[in-house]
Design goal:
The protein is mostly helical and about 220 residues long. The chain is built from twelve helices and no strands.
Length: about 220
């Protein structure tokens, strides 16, 4: 089993070493596309982004932060008023409960500050590992893991960077084959490529510079 595992990681590491430098060239300025000014805003925006586009979240958060500029203000929000502001993001009742619970815990347990550890962040209502990774890697400058969303799940399977299917195991694979200082950027660059080229329904393989070294691209384009 150990030899099989070593061979697996050797294969995906070799593929990463081919693919990732090209993603760096394609997307040198890749970044989180949620608008935020501080860790609290990014935390709230990321909670809203579940099953919702970043564009829609960015249309919603200006009003949200104008009304509730900090955890204290958000913790005192009336549920109905909060729901009306975030309604367009979908699942607004659940998200409102998460935002209220998150902000109340920040006030009560963390003096109104967003904590900077994975263990503390995932205690917050509405915050799982992916959200914590987004906040840590972008707003707090700490690479504790790699955010794995639907784009990343799709891309690693198509490109050959992981054969796993769960976000947790995909994250472990990517952490194993990539430098820690690149963890946040690995996610950003995969997401940017997924949004711009490697679309869910119809990947633009004929336009993709990764295609010659991508298993899916080679298959679609009939490349040997």
């Amino acid at each position: 089993m150990e030899e099989v595992e070593q061979e697996y990681f050797s294969q995906i590491k070799s593929q990463f070493d081919i693919i990732y430098p090209r993603l760096v060239t394609l997307y040198p300025n890749a970044h989180c596309e949620l608008n935020y000014q501080n860790a609290f805003q990014l935390l709230a925006a990321t909670i809203l982004s579940a099953q919702c586009t970043d564009e829609r979240v960015n249309m919603t958060t200006p009003a949200l932060f104008a009304n509730y500029p900090n955890p204290q203000a958000l913790s005192e929000a009336q549920p109905e008023e909060l729901e009306s502001i975030i309604r367009s993001c979908g699942f607004y009742r659940n998200k409102a409960r998460s935002l209220l619970g998150m902000s109340k815990m920040l006030v009560q347990d963390f003096s109104g500050q967003v904590p900077d550890t994975m263990a503390e962040l995932i205690r917050l209502p509405g915050v799982a590992r992916k959200t914590a990774n987004v906040v840590l890697g972008n707003a707090l400058g700490k690479n504790e893991g790699i955010p794995v969303d639907t784009h990343v799940i799709r891309l690693v399977a198509r490109i050959g960077l992981s054969s796993q299917i769960t976000p947790e195991k995909i994250e472990q694979d990517l952490m194993h084959i990539s430098p820690r200082e690149e963890w946040a950027m690995v996610s950003h660059r995969l997401i940017w490529h997924g949004r711009r080229v490697c679309n869910a329904r119809k990947p633009l393989c004929e336009q993709c510079t990764l295609a010659p070294d991508c298993p899916t691209g080679r298959q679609i384009l009939n490349l040997k």
